[in-house]
Amino acid sequence: MEDQVKSSLTRHSMIHTNEKPFSCVTCKKKFTRKSYLRLHMRTHTGEKTKSQLLIHIRTHTGEKPFSCMTCGKGFARRASLTYHMMTHTGEKPFSCGTCGKCFLTKFQLLLHMRIHTGEKPFSCVSCGKSFLLKMHLLNHMTIHVGEKPFSCGTCGKSFINKGHLNVHMRIHTGEKPFSCGTCGKSFTLKQTLDHHMKIHTDQKSFSCGTCGKSFRLKMYLLNHMRIHTGEKPFSCGTCGKSFGRKMHLLNHVRIHTGEKPFSCGTCGKSYSHRSSLTHHMKTHSDKKS
């Protein structure tokens, strides 16, 4: 009993000393416990635990044994339920020591920290470009092979990953799953909702060093800075015309491809730009009035 207490105390003291005596021979990553090292080694060997197998089986059976007491949503993993519950409580227990931003999970915090450190651990072997996330690297790799394995059953457009296809499908279904708790406005993307929320807080954290104009998002500031620098980093591969914003390039490319992804639900007429569809829809509402 005394030995167990002493062992527990020794392990606990490592939290304060940051001592990590167990090293991975493959990647040199260090751990405070031998058991943690053993679990880590499976990332190199590909070995799966029995618990991982049981969780995986649920993807086939559809079993979701962990249910939210608040909204009834089911989950295959207890950890997923725990994270989900925080959306109801608003709890974000992991804080960034640099900027103070808070996150639901330690993993989200670690990803965020790379913004401050500049770490991009996933590199493309073809062109050397580096990425924050492995998923972003895998998406990027399809550019080199030209692979777009996920196709839209409605319009036939293809995508490099299922996530992009799912987002695209919302154009056809009209689904807007992300709603503003303040005004009720809905959006197809969570990122768009996050941007919208700053309208209510009137938060403009990013200022232009040249003219002093402030913006809610760093992306808006970067776009604005190109007015001063004249930079146009987005070039058309067909005609060579350059643009200050990627969105403007995408709109331009449709001149060459003839793509018209925005369709009228009333008469079926299609348009290259969403604004053109919005303008067209008014002709139907004017006729009704």
TrEMBL record:
Protein origin, superkingdom: Eukaryota
A GO term, aspect molecular function: DNA-binding transcription factor activity, RNA polymerase II-specific
InterPro entries documented for this protein: C2H2-ZF_domain (IPR050752), Znf_C2H2_sf (IPR036236), Znf_C2H2_type (IPR013087)
Main location: nucleus
Matching Pfam families: zf-C2H2
GO cellular component: nucleus
KW DNA-binding (keyword) present: yes
Record's signal peptide: none
Record keywords, A-Z: DNA-binding, Metal-binding, Nucleus, Repeat, Transcription, Transcription regulation, Zinc, Zinc-finger
Location(s), subcellular: Nucleus
Domain C2H2-type positions: 22-49, 66-93, 94-121, 122-149, 150-177, 178-205, 206-233, 234-261, 262-289
Function: May be involved in transcriptional regulation.
Family according to the record: Belongs to the krueppel C2H2-type zinc-finger protein family.
Record's protein name: C2H2-type domain-containing protein
Organism (species): Xiphophorus couchianus
Organism classification: Eukaryota, Metazoa, Chordata, Craniata, Vertebrata
